[in-house]
Amino acid sequence: MNTLATSASDVPSSGTSGAAGASRSGAPGTAGARPDRHIPQLVGHRGAAALVPENTLLSFRRGIADGAVLLECDVHLSADGRDVIIHDATIDRTAQPDSPLRTGSVAELTREQLDRVRVGKDQRIPTLTEVLDVAVGEGGTRIPLLVEVKAPAATALVMQILTAYFRDQDFAERASAPAMVISFHPEVLQEARAVAPHIPRLLTTTETSEQFFTTAVELDVAQIGVRIADARQADVERARQLGIELNLWTARSEEELHRALELGCDTITVDDPRWAREIITGAGSPDAGLPGRESERIGA
């Protein structure tokens, strides 16, 4: 029986992320940031989820093009034991209206069936290896991928894929690690640590507690993730005392973005990396966001 515990719960509308390779840079004159704080790196949430269908290769490419320094994706397991890059436990929300298959539980569908699903702009549901293949910037620079294990049953396969894809020495320095394993579930990170302790881990939550921080220390995580609305200054200070980096998620409004900057963190997860980057650097309107961007957003 797993002895580790946390107060986090995994909710369908939430996203997590953390960050591998999050170096810090202090950019003077940044809107909303406290002058004594480093400017956090941007994590492209499911790629660029506000602009193109989430968790698709198109979305990850867009996130990179729009300035995300890191990317985040979600993994479930199919009925035949294959990895599936999707956030929800079902395909119902993300399947486009004319998809050949529009409803069903991921865990009850085979990978062959899931390959028939179209999730917007005729995009298909990718595999983890396919996402790793596109997580590359200009000049071949590797964009660290934050792999959130949604279904604990997928942990062994995720670790198998990551350890086969990368060399152990690629993780010699946490600051340059090409991937990180994320989860709300401590047992996922416990298993990941047992299989490949050199791959960094991030424990995320919607609500911190002393037990959450104790668990994070026991798991030797590189980062913790806290939802912006639930984060407190005490959480920031506690993470700093423990030497654990902090990810805040997910900034979808200027209010959320500025709150994350004011609290102080190492990474911020966002649905629209270019929008966030331009707001942070002062290029966007301080009151109305970025002119012309809203029409691009999904559902606008």
At a glance:
The protein is an alpha/beta fold and 300 residues long. It has helices at 57-65, 111-114, 128-134, 155-165, 186-195, 210-218, 233-242, 254-263, 273-280, and strands at residues 41-45, 70-77, 83-85, 145-149, 179-183, 201-205, 223-227, 245-251, 267-270.
Describe this structure in words.
This protein is of the alpha/beta class. The protein is 26% helix and 16% strand. The chain has an eight-stranded parallel β-barrel with strand order 1-2-4-5-6-7-8-9, surrounded by seven helices. The protein is globular, with a radius of gyration of 18 Å.
Helices, by number, come to: 9
- The first-to-last residue Cα distance is 47 Å
Poorly predicted ranges (pLDDT <50, ≥5 residues)? 1-35, 284-292
Structural category is alpha/beta
- Oligomer state equals single chain
The proportion of residues forming helix, as a percent range, comes to 25-40%
Q: Rounded to an integer, what's the Rg over CA atoms?
A: 18 Å
Overall mean confidence score, pLDDT:
87
- Main sheet makeup: 8 strands, parallel, barrel
Biggest β-sheet: strands ordered side by side in the sheet: 1-2-4-5-6-7-8-9
What is the count of β-strands? 9
The topology string of helices and strands comes to EHEEHHEHEHEHEHEHEH
Shape: globular
Q: What fraction of residues sit in β-strands?
A: 15-25%
